[in-house]
Structure formats: C-alpha cells, structure tokens
Fold these 2 entries.
Entry 1:
Amino acid sequence: MLTRSLAILLAPWLPLGALMLPMSAAHRIDGLVAGALGIVLSAFSLSNDRARIAAAAVGAWVALTALVFPSTLLEATLALSWGALMFAWLAGPFSTRPAVITSVAPAAAADARDGHLPLAA
C-alpha cells in the first residue's frame, strides 16, 4: 500500500516533465497521454487491483517508449525512470494489500501407552 501512495505522488511528474522539458513531439504526446492515464489509474489503484495492474502496464509502456522511439538522453532518462518506478511500485511485491495468514496448530500426537505421558528415566 505504501508503494501505491508513492505512485500517486510520482504520477504527475511525467506530464509535468513533458510540458516543461524540451522533448520531441512523439515523447511529448506520449508523456501527456500516458501521464494523464497514470494519474487517474494510480489514484484508483488504492481501491481496485485492476486499476493497479493497468497503471503498471502504462508504466511499462512508457519505459519501453524510450527504446521504441528515437530519443535523446533527456527523453530516455525521463521515460525510463518514470516508467520503471511506476511498474515496480504498482506491480512489485510491496504493492499488494497486507494480509493476515493464520494456520491451525497440528493436533498433539497420541501416545501409544494407554494415553499416559512417558515417565522420566
């Protein structure tokens, strides 16, 4: 749950970076669209696991766009860092809800000698 909250804080950075930094048209559009989807889906990820997986998929897509589209070092750094963190935080092991696992103790084994406890030697 902590990583879901951190993803909500990280989600607005991609559209902000797409608007403020000098990026190509493909990365700017991808950053705005994927960033807006990431904001909405990461907000809904607190209550819905499907939204969590969808936001993780958006993060994986953004991380791969640096490899698909021709990009500068700035564009690759922004896309890979945002996408990898969103994917890891929303699909990683600490993103699931805390669960309490209980188990029943096994029954004590019955002694073969008339149900009495063994005597000390």
Entry 2:
Amino acid sequence: MPKTHLSKTNKMTFARYWRGSIRETVDAMNKDGVKMAYRTCQRYIADPEVQAAIRIHTNAENRAGVSERDEILIMWGKVMRDESRPTMYRLRASELLAKALGMFLEKKPEPAALTFADLTRRGYNDD
C-alpha cells in the first residue's frame, strides 16, 4: 500500500475529535459533518505527532473542569466581599459559595439503638 501524505490540518482535526476509540471518533466527526475514512483514522492514530496532540488535548480538557470550578468559587468570594455591590448580590454569592462548599448539609444524628434494658427501664415491658 503506498504511503499518502498525512495533512497536518487533518491530523489536528482528528486529535481534537478523539473520543477514546477510532470508531467513536469517526462517528463524532461524521455527526459534525467532518468526513474522514476509518482507514485514514487508523493511519493517524499510529502517527506520533497525532498521539502527542491527543495527549495535550486530553490533558487540557481534564484541567479545564477543575479550573472552571475554582474560578467560579473565587468569583463568588470576590462578589461576596465587594462592598460596592448591592447586598442582595453579596448575599446570593455567599449562599452559592456556602452551598458549593457543602456548608448547608444538615447532619442528622443517627438514632441510638435501644437495648432490652432500656426498654424495660422505661416501662415498655408487657406486664
């Protein structure tokens, strides 16, 4: 089989669409109107440049979720402390921040297990 030139643009497109398997990647590309043959994708996944791009893209996606959460918490903290903002906004920001940090979780104590001695001492016996 003759080697064909693998376009850098197509390689990066393939890397951006990578979904963990060639089949899922091809399906995602076709769904978005990007046509690429399964066989071409098999060649791309073997290319070291594409593998490096997939690793970079995957790491960036994983970090994005964490930084977005941190950014939101920081923003709520800034709004909460900004005395130039209306009290309503500051109160809402503090409420959202507290909810995100789990400060409103009500911890109910578990009921104590009753023993036979407790039941008889309280007059719950059948006599």
